[in-house]
Amino acid sequence: MGSLDQELYQLCKKLFLKCGQFENYKSLCNFCASQTELEIVSENLEDATNPKKLVEINLLKFLQTKSTENGYIILPFVKALIADCNSGDALHNELNDLKTKLEKYYENQASQPKTTQSDQKSYKSIFDDDCLKSPKVSPSQRTLPDNLKLFKSILNIDFDEQQNQVIEALNRDKIGAFLIHGLQEHGQEVLVTRLSQLSNLRRNQRQPVSIKMGNIKSIDSLWHEVAQPFFGSEQRALDYTKGEIVDKILECLQTQTVIFIFFEVHQWGVLLNSLIEDFWCPIIEKASLNKTHLVMFLIDNQAKVGELNIPWVADHNERDYPRKPLCLNQAERFTYKKLQNWLNAIDVEVPDKLTAERLMQRPHLGIPERVYRQICIECNSKWEVISQWLIL
Known about the structure:
Elements: H1 6-16, H2 25-33, H3 39-42, H4 51-64, H5 74-83, H6 90-110, H7 117-124, H8 144-154, H9 160-172, E1 175-181, H10 188-196, H11 199-202, E2 209-212, H12 219-231, H13 234-237, H14 242-253, E3 258-263, H15 272-284, E4 294-300, E5 326-327, H16 336-345, H17 356-360, H18 368-378, H19 383-386
Parallel strand pairs: 1-4, 1-5, 2-3, 3-4
């Protein structure tokens, strides 16, 4: 199989999600069928519930299928994407850079010994959850599936109180709004990733709409950013009104769970009230949900809840919820007991020297992101590698 290294694989996923061809299964099939060299793969493409899964499933097809040039179909596919882009677009340049990296990668691979069948299985197993059922392996044998298993284990450190708050709120109402807050390095990104994977949200989930508010200067700009993943491209999103964007979101909610995640909300200051009144409320006032959920997470990494110009509630039973977000318990340092409980329960083998006492000492001090980094170091991995699976 034409496997890629982890960094290049993630780059493919990132750029393919920007391409209109992955807006839906039909668009992808029509595009491949229209390209002579891609016909060989067009009949084997698989449908998925959202663009992210569509990319993940079919990227594997492109990596497995041989082209007529005795290479893998991934290169002709990227070349076709480039040809379909306007030469002045940023995406055109990014895809060109990807093509160059792929060509160099395969040239290097051609000069190396062939990968073994066991290597191929390690690479493929990251695409599904089967890797989580594999036996324990020692830290010195850490592979891609083991990194994923370690990441999912790290997600389970503490944050039980916040998770219970969200579960209780969602059991009451299929619409949920939550404010996640704490100081820097206190694991807010890990927490929102964990919450987005709750069983009742994971079912039929569309790729979460994740936006960094520091880059957004007005409520109109926010609507434009939100529209892009629903309409397939930046240019198309500009053509729609707020009402049409709301209608598109409501249409998706008929079959898919929609999650909005807004990072860096502390940078929005006085505009935060507008986020609630002019964005969130117009959507939830029209939403009528049956089997899906509509959820918004607001992320504050500066522990400035008291200073934020945003209305929130302290209990999901309050009348203004979910119009106003529920303020979850603040993300705090891990306690010795929480870390020891995690070490006792994990199904990943860790070295004996990794103890709760050590993670509570300087420079870690139980601070979540410092703890994550040290756990990765002790397990022969890197947080920079593990954190690629965070929702950012």
